[in-house]
Design a protein that fits this description.
306 residues; 9-stranded mixed β-sheet; alpha/beta
């Protein structure tokens, strides 16, 4: 059975316990190029529920035999520059402590990966640095998303795409997320639920949960995260599509929860926030694609809704 760990404690302790329960060290054995992708969509401290707590990533690095060879990556599509988010959230301290590289993917080289059986996108522009990695860890945040319903480890992978691609993905969620995951499924997932967020993805509505979730199977992990937020996975459109396409689990009963029990933690997160940036990206992304003006007008639309 697919295993998903849920642990309680502070960010470092809970993450360490979750990694041990899921045999994390076994999965990274022999991996030399490990990419760690936190959720830093906004230059806000983790206590507001928007961004991944740096201590979650610190705990991951402490489980890696040669952490100096790892790289922490993000390409923010939010209203703040990625470097600002790295600074505010304390990620540059990891360079001093572990010798890891911190990289803003918005300045990376991108490779267009064709999709053999696309639902929406014929190809996706993905960071070369991430593609060259031999193990990708998506370190998401337990929070609601105004379009995708939730953002956990799978939605978090949008950050490895080019800015142009992010707008297209936003425009066609949930099917575009299925296309993305079909070409780049994370090898491992961790979700920071120490302070979660309801209603919206960038406007703080924090909920103190004190938990961390982890699994080798990110589809199963996001399904469990959804349940913790009081939302059935089938009511998260991109998860439903992925499950139907059988990219991973095809039966929720196949998931074994280890550690804490969902019923002891479950909260009904509020949904339905109206985020002008996300809705604007969705509307204009569709319009630009339909009219064929995407390449010409994209830079201006992105500046407005970034």
């Amino acid at each position: 059975m697919v295993k998903v760990a849920i642990t309680k404690g502070n960010a470092y302790e809970a993450t360490t316990k979750a990694l041990k329960l899921t045999n994390f060290k076994k999965f990274i054995l022999g991996k030399s190029r490990i990419a760690i992708k936190p959720n830093l969509s906004y230059a806000a401290p983790a206590k507001l529920g928007i961004t991944t707590d740096v201590n979650v990533v610190r705990a991951i690095l402490d489980q890696i035999p040669k952490p100096e060879k790892a790289i922490v990556v993000e390409g923010s599509a939010g209203p703040a520059k990625t470097n600002d988010a790295f600074e505010v959230c304390g990620y540059y301290e990891l360079e001093k402590e572990y010798g890891v590289r911190i990289l803003d993917l918005n300045h990376d080289e991108f490779i267009n990966i064709p999709i053999s059986e696309p639902m929406t996108l014929k190809g996706i522009e993905i960071s070369k640095t991430v593609l060259d990695s031999d193990f990708v860890i998506s370190v998401g945040k337990l929070k609601i998303h105004s379009i995708a319903r939730i953002t956990a480890t799978l939605k978090n992978m949008m950050g490895v795409c080019s800015k142009r691609q992010k707008l297209k993905i936003h425009a066609f969620i949930p099917r575009s997320l299925v296309d993305l995951i079909s070409v780049l499924m994370p090898d491992f997932g961790v979700i920071d639920g120490i302070v979660a967020n309801e209603i919206d993805e960038v406007v703080p509505h924090p909920i103190k949960m004190g938990i961390v979730l982890a699994s080798k199977d990110c589809v199963a992990l996001d399904c469990v995260a959804s349940e913790v937020m009081g939302i059935h996975p089938y009511n998260v459109p991109y998860l439903h599509e992925i499950i139907l396409k059988e990219l991973s689990i095809d039966n929720l009963d196949e998931i074994e929860i280890i550690g804490e029990k969902i019923e002891n933690l479950k909260r009904n997160f509020r949904i339905g926030g109206f985020n002008v940036r996300s809705r604007g990206q969705k509307f204009f992304g569709i319009m630009l694609n339909k009219t064929g003006l995407f390449s010409l007008l994209y830079p201006y639309v992105y500046k407005i809704f970034r």
